[in-house]
Design brief:
Helix content: 40-55%
Radius of gyration: 19 Å
Mean pLDDT: 75
Distance between the termini: 20 Å
Low-confidence stretches: 12-29, 120-132, 260-296
Strand content: 5-15%
Shape: globular
Largest sheet: 6 strands, antiparallel
Number of strands: 8
């Protein structure tokens, strides 16, 4: 196979029991190979559901307990990414996908690691444009200054914005331009979380949104532990799972293999289609991800 596909295969082979989409459940289908012209591709599972941005748009702000349960599931996947040395850099409701387990219970998957960064490595494997990409409304002060110089605490800021938005229906900072937004994020205090929310929950969100990364939670497992009291009865188990994943970590893979994986997922494209006729209640739509080399 082509070098890119070979290194991509190394990533998958190195973690045969950890293909859980950085999201708890094994992928239904996962393959890697090359097209006839030699470009590498990854095939990922077909998901039935919608992202949390869609959920927010349809029904407005969500109950705190629901938001906590969803974000805790994302924390488990994110802990696995961080343990593997990857920073997502583009966490937002649109990249948290809500699907269902076979028993009908909700399952949140972390999607689109297209601009993920390997901690401690240069971004040479990512296109120059991708290195400065992200979603400004969810980016930490340090990421707005330089997307190349961030660690896992930038993802904690993004999760703070996600928590803030899902329970209030709005992001903490509103601006007309990226420059204006960057100035607000860098200099203005975070507005208090609107609406009736538990005081302790608001404190967790505000700690995620500390401008100084050193004042945020030490890692995603610590955030999960702080969130658990505000979730459902199963929240503590999810937080414990995030802690085990963070400390145990997946098997190490070579830097070359990580670069191949990030390069391939940078070319990710998403397509939304109507689900089958017997779709679950609530009007779920089906969505699939496929990542292929596009020769960009």
């Amino acid at each position: 196979p082509a070098p890119g596909a070979r290194h991509l295969a190394d990533v998958l082979a190195a973690q045969p029991t950890r293909r859980a989409s950085l999201a708890q459940e094994p992928l239904d289908q996962l393959d890697v190979g090359t097209l006839d012209d030699g470009l590498p591709y990854i095939v990922m599972e077909y998901l039935d559901g919608h992202d949390l941005a869609t959920a927010l748009g349809r029904g407005g702000p969500l109950p705190v307990v629901t938001v906590v349960d969803y974000v805790l599931q994302a924390c488990v996947g994110l802990a696995e990414a961080h343990a593997a040395g990857l920073v997502h850099r583009d966490l937002k409701p649109a990249n948290l996908f809500l699907t269902r387990r076979p028993d009908g219970s909700p399952l949140v998957k972390v999607m689109d690691f297209g601009i993920a960064k390997a901690v401690g490595r240069l971004d040479a494997a990512i296109t120059e444009s991708a290195a400065v990409m992200g979603s400004p409304g969810y980016m930490s002060p340090e990421q707005l200054r330089s997307a190349r110089d961030v660690d896992g605490r930038a993802d904690l800021w993004s999760l703070g914005v996600v928590l803030y938005e899902l329970v209030s229906g709005q992001r903490p900072y509103q601006a007309q331009t990226i420059t204006e937004l960057a100035m607000l994020v860098a200099t203005e205090p975070v507005p208090p979380l609107p609406g009736p929310v538990p005081r302790g929950f608001a404190a967790v969100v505000m700690r995620c949104l500390e401008k100084d990364p050193a004042k945020r939670f030490a890692d995603v497992a610590a955030l999960a532990t702080a969130l658990a009291p505000f979730g459902s009865p199963g929240a503590a188990a999810l937080a414990a799972s995030a802690g085990r994943v963070q400390t145990g970590g997946p098997p190490a893979v070579s830097g070359e293999a990580l670069e191949a994986l990030m390069s391939a997922t940078t070319l990710s494209r998403a397509t939304s289609v109507r689900g089958p006729a017997a779709a679950p209640p609530g009007g779920f739509t089906a969505r699939y991800r496929r990542s292929i080399g596009l020769g960009l």
